[in-house]
Automatic annotation (TrEMBL):
It comes from Lacticaseibacillus paracasei subsp. paracasei Lpp71. One of its GO terms (molecular function) is lyase activity. Its EC number is 2.4.2.52. It catalyses: 3'-dephospho-CoA + ATP = 2'-(5''-triphospho-alpha-D-ribosyl)-3'-dephospho-CoA + adenine. The keyword Transit peptide does not apply. Keywords: ATP-binding, Ligase, Lyase, Nucleotide-binding, Transferase. This is triphosphoribosyl-dephospho-CoA synthase. One of its GO terms (biological process) is prosthetic group biosynthetic process.
């Protein structure tokens, strides 16, 4: 499985989520749920805008030399991805959380693939993935601290 195939799996999962129906209160092909500002078309635009960044998250993990370096790369890519999503949806937050989560998941997967094969990870039910996400995500607390200081 190559980088493009892994990144495409993230895209496929976002499409599957929005197309799953019924989802009372949430956007699906049958209803906008509680959302007046978004529909399936908005989600598709968002997915299309985010898709190129999923491969970049994975590539950052595959090439980073250190965890702090990887965190900074993921952060930089994530900001660009979010801007692309917000532009594509004309300011509607459809996938901010998914973008954030996929950044860490794909980055951590790439990081782990530096030392072991995808087959090895599958054989262990991806058990190392979540500890790797936690290790990489430690940098987030500093971002939130800085954010609260900026808002003071």
């Amino acid at each position: 499985m190559n980088e493009q195939t892994i990144a495409q799996a993230a895209v496929t999962s976002l499409r599957a989520e929005v197309l799953l129906a019924p989802k009372p209160g949430l956007v699906d092909p049958e209803s906008n749920g509680a959302h007046r500002d978004m529909n399936v078309t908005t989600f598709e635009a968002s997915i299309h805008a985010l898709a190129p960044y999923f491969g970049q998250y994975l590539h950052a993990g595959l090439t980073a030399a250190t965890v702090p370096q990887l965190y900074q790369q993921l952060r930089t890519i994530g900001v660009k991805a979010e801007k692309a999503m917000m532009t594509a949806t004309v300011g509607v937050n459809t996938h901010r959380g998914a973008n954030f989560s996929f950044g860490f998941l794909l980055g951590a997967l790439g990081w782990l693939l530096q030392k072991q094969s995808l087959k090895q990870l599958v054989m262990h039910d991806f058990a190392p993935l979540f500890p790797a996400v936690a290790q990489i995500a430690q940098g987030v607390s500093g971002d939130f601290r800085d954010l609260s200081e900026k808002n003071s």
